[in-house]
Design brief:
Blueprint (H helix, E strand, L loop, with lengths): L6 E4 L3 E5 L3 E6 L4 E2 L1 H15 L4 E6 L5 E2 L2 H5 L5 E7 L3 H11 L5 E5 L2 H18 L3
Length: about 130
Amino acid sequence: MAAFDVLNIELDFTSVEIHENYMISQIKEGIDFKQKHLDQFYKLFETYYHDKPFISIADRKYDYTIDPNLFRDSSFRNLLGIGVVCYTESSFKTAQFEKTFFKGKFEPFYSMEDCIQWAEELVKSHHTKNKS
């Protein structure tokens, strides 16, 4: 199997790393995340994951606001789950609250390594279930 080259993308409100089975986004400080931002994520999803399952990882290094209803309304056919990497207890609690709005798998973590491991396991489990 060929190695997957990580792709780095800079948008006005976020930086994104595209990996084979997941993408990591880091929303910039002070952003008020709205539907227009989510729409830009959907374009990335469609471009890089239109035919394969993946996980979206939010690296919450910076403070920003997001309407939790965006989680309720968000769905992309190949998105298996959302992982959130938190750096403070308040960020972790916010992610736990947001989890109640999302219909799919949504997990907060305190380490990127744990989140990536969770993402890889979810994708692997999905492939295993769908081979039959």
